[in-house]
From TrEMBL:
Belongs to the cytochrome P450 family. GO terms for molecular function: heme binding; iron ion binding; monooxygenase activity; oxidoreductase activity, acting on paired donors, with incorporation or reduction of molecular oxygen. Its cofactor is heme. Pfam families: p450. This is Cytochrome P450. Keywords: Heme, Iron, Metal-binding, Monooxygenase, Oxidoreductase.
Length: 405
């Protein structure tokens, strides 16, 4: 990726060529380790400017200390979430809700949505999540001694939970997996086409639920009120689209990184298989070591931050993978310790936008690992194959072929 111009206000000594997209290990690489590649930033300054750390024509400031990231993410008045990432791919301008709203509007929608993804609601969904995990894994076990975990398990599992959550039947699973893949990993033609299809689908579903209400998420959204009024079509769309994009790649990638780690570390794999009570704590450590989201904010005013002259409109990156490997925050941050206690990791972000789906995500990951380890014997990366890891806005993994022959 070519570097973007460095704005005049950025002092040359604050520019680094480190990027979560293009630094070694960040571009799709067989057996690459984009999480380990971030370790070099902690030895440097608390903030630097990278001209190639973005996709849309501008570089970003990169915050390298977990404690400073928390300051940025807590301060929505100075660092805004107001962007239209999804809509701009379609040449439109509407926010994904609540992700791309700032207070006070953010709080209004967040309070509306909180109960729908509360621990209680997730507990109700749990039997369906487990049933789906078992079904997919049994199918894999019955069909041989090897599989592509991302294609055969992680993606269909995450998409299926999304369908259940929206109250939709399973038979459209493959269609949705296709849309999600095109949206997240398609080229310049497939990505906007998938975005358009998803918007049309959400609009259509909302119209259907308006006409014929049932007991599901979308019916609640079209019937509910905020500040004494019903939601506009654009607000309904902004919520539906966010629920679609927020929980697919993230959960699938987390399961992929976890199983890749266990495939390479047979002792830990055996420990969790023989003592499944350890899985929930282990999953937290794997979320710490292999988080997936690079959070970005836009400065709303000129700010001097740790000596950096951030100007209104500048992008500021708070990468969870940088926070989670900060040695000031975690002892031996590059070592995976499945029994790590007091694990205050940043995988789900921080501040008002902290992940709304974290309870659901955690249950999906833990149940996925529990059922996988209960049904698949000792597994490794298949000889002659290499999983492809990559950095970016959302870190991911492809071609994870496991073998238990
Ligand atoms: C391992 C899986 C997941 C990870 C690592 C993750 C991570 C994150 C992070 C870091 C944020 C904060 C973004 C920001 O501050 O700009 C976020 C926000 C959000 N996530 Fe997740 N997420 C995951 C799964 C899910 C799931 C399953 C759902 C829902 C179905 C979900 C729904 C949301 C929503 C709605 C927001 C916006 C919250 C707000 O703006 O108030 N996430 N997520």
């Amino acid at each position: 990726m070519a570097a973007n111009p460095v704005p005049d206000h950025v002092p040359p000594e604050m520019v680094r060529d480190f990027s979560l997209f293009t630094s070694p290990g960040m571009a799709p690489t067989p057996n690459g380790d984009p999480h380990a590649a971030v370790a070099c930033v902690h030895a440097g300054p608390p903030i630097f400017y990278s001209p190639c750390n973005t996709r849309d024509g501008r570089g970003t400031w990169v915050i390298t200390r977990a404690t400073d990231q928390r300051r940025v993410l807590q301060d929505a008045e100075s660092f805004s979430s107001h962007r239209s990432i999804f809509a701009s791919a379609l040449g439109e301008k509407w926010p994904m809700i609540p992700l791309e709203l700032d207070p006070p509007a953010h709080g209004v929608f967040r309070s509306l949505l909180n109960p729908l993804l509360s621990p209680k609601r997730v507990t109700e969904l749990e039997p369906a999540i487990r049933e789906r995990a078992i079904m997919l894994i049994k199918r894999i076990a019955a069909s041989g001694t090897s599989c592509d975990v991302m294609k055969d398990f992680a993606f269909p599992f995450a998409v299926n939970i999304f369908l259940r959550f929206l109250g939709l039947p399973d038979h459209r699973l493959d269609t949705f997996v296709g849309w999600a893949k095109d949206l997240l990993h398609g080229d310049d033609v497939r990505r906007p086409a998938a975005a358009r299809t998803i918007v049309a689908f959400i609009d259509e579903l909302a119209a259907m639920r308006c006409k014929e209400p049932v007991d599901d998420f979308m019916t609640f959204i079209v019937q509910t009120q905020v500040e004494g009024r019903q939601l506009t079509d654009e607000e309904v769309r902004g919520i539906g689209v966010l629920i679609f994009v927020a929980g697919l790649d993230t959960v699938a990638a987390a399961i992929g990184f976890d199983l890749a780690y266990l495939a390479r570390n047979l002792k830990d794999q055996e420990l969790l298989r023989s003592e499944p009570d350890r899985i929930a704590l282990a999953a937290e450590e794997l979320l710490r070591a292999y988080p997936t989201v690079q959070i970005t904010r836009v400065a709303t005013k000129d700010i001097d931050f740790e000596g950096a002259p951030i100007r209104k409109g500048d992008y500021v990156s708070c990468a969870t993978m940088i926070a989670n490997r900060d040695p000031a925050e975690f002892e031996s941050p590059n070592t995976v310790d499945l029994a790590r206690e007091g694990n205050r990791h940043a995988a789900f972000g921080y501040g008002p936008h902290r992940c709304l789906g974290s309870h659901l995500a955690r249950r999906e990951i833990v149940i996925g690992l529990e059922e996988w380890l209960a049904r698949i014997p000792a597994f490794r990366i298949k000889k002659g194959t290499a999983p492809i890891n990559y950095g970016g806005h959302v870190f991911g993994i492809e071609n994870l072929i496991l073998d238990w022959s």
